[in-house]
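Page 37, continued from 36.
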């Protein structure tokens, strides 16, 4: 990496991230190049964002074409890409309506507002039925409210006072969840089907079944944070489809725009009418350039056989990883995988991979892989070769 860029960052950008010494300049498919021309196979997709890889032709044409035509229209008007993306999203997921925003945290904020207002409208303020139960080890975003919703103590520091009304339960322990929910003060349960930042930790099917049954019987809303797991990441459009359940509210972001900032809240008939005129909004929500990118992503994902290919690639990756002696297990589904390591820390493995031209991610003590959903077999194999060289060393003792 060239020195100047680091100096500029150090001088002018707030120091909130520990960065790797990589300055990406261009890319195609799952291969990126830095300023000096060194190539990297990208197994991180900018944290699950570049779902069609770098500069996919259809996506570039959609985005550039729209940018040349009309780059923004306020929500006081109609614009075609937002309408098209909304229709595609609802028809392909079976949800009733969508609200567009700009990030995962914002989508979750909106989901929380809908859950609280649903209960307010139906049970009244005096009922006190406004709390939201989330799960320990979850991650829901960086705004003050979504930090409060996040079930990890490290996120509950410095920024006092946090938003009230959240409590945390152990994932996959239904009796603990039920004990909390039976207190009668909850309007919703919020969860990730596979905790992403928490270390690629899936919920168990039995837990999900019991949770959904209890929530249905007690009119407690299910609010699924699919910001990371959604939009084809695990080989279905939504990860809820793997579990055979349909949450009342699902939030999306990361992969939806294919590289541009977008968030979305999709609601069933039960929750899609809760917010009325003037009760929520955001200037950039439904931006036509961003939505045109989203349309290109969804069109690709809904092509016949595409999502099955995500599952197939995930299985191949998993199988290859499980044969390495530095790997003791692989969690996750499709192209959202967490590698349990032995003999090497996630940080050391990450640094070694980056040196050798592979960009994975970490999540807690695991190496995390979120490659582009359309990664080519050739790129996949190249990436696997690098992982082999890092994770398949003879044990020194
Ligand atoms: C990334 C992430 C968020 C936050 O999304 P931002 O776009 O960074 O605000 C929320 N929930 C989950 C599950 C995520 O993975």
């Amino acid at each position: 990496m060239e020195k100047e860029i680091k100096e500029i960052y150090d001088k002018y950008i707030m120091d909130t991230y520990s960065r790797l010494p990589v300055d990406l300049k261009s890319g195609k498919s799952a291969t990126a190049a830095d300023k000096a021309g060194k190539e990297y196979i990208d197994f991180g997709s900018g944290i699950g964002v570049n779902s069609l890889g770098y500069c996919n032709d259809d996506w570039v044409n959609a985005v550039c074409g729209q940018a040349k035509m009309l780059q923004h229209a306020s929500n006081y008007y109609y614009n075609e890409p937002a309408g098209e993306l909304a229709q595609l999203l609802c028809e392909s997921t079976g949800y009733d309506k969508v609200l567009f925003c700009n990030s995962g945290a914002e989508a979750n904020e909106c989901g929380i507002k809908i859950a609280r207002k649903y209960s307010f409208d139906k049970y009244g303020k005096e009922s006190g039925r406004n709390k939201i139960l989330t799960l320990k080890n979850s991650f829901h975003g960086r705004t003050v409210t979504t930090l409060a919703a996040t079930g990890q103590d490290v996120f509950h520091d410095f920024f006092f006072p946090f938003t009230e009304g959240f409590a945390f339960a152990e994932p996959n322990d239904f009796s603990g969840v039920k004990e909390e929910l039976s207190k009668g003060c909850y309007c919703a349960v919020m969860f990730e089907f596979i905790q992403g930042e928490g270390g690629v930790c899936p919920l168990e099917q039995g837990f999900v079944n019991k949770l959904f049954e209890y929530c249905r019987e007690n009119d407690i809303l299910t609010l699924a944070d699919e910001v990371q797991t959604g939009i084809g990441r695990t080989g279905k459009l939504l990860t809820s489809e793997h579990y055979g359940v349909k949450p009342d509210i699902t939030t999306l972001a990361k992969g939806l725009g294919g590289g541009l900032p977008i968030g979305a809240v999709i609601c069933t008939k039960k929750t899609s009418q809760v917010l009325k005129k003037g009760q929520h909004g955001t200037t950039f929500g439904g931006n036509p350039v961003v939505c045109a990118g989203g349309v290109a992503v969804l069109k690709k994902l809904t092509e016949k056989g595409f999502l099955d290919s995500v599952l197939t690639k995930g299985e191949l990756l998993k199988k290859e990883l499980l044969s390495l002696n530095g790997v003791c297990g692989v969690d996750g589904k499709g192209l959202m995988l967490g590698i349990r390591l032995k003999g090497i820390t996630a940080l050391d493995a990450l640094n070694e991979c980056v040196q050798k031209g592979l960009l994975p991610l970490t999540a807690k003590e695991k190496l995390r892989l979120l490659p582009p959903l359309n990664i080519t077999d050739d790129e996949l194999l190249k990436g696997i070769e690098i992982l082999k060289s890092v994770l398949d060393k003879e044990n020194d003792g």
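Residues 103-105, 108, 139-141, 192, 196-197, 225, 227-228, 253-254 surround pyridoxal-5'-phosphate (CB under 6 Å). Flag for discussion at group meeting. The longest strand covers residues 327-333.
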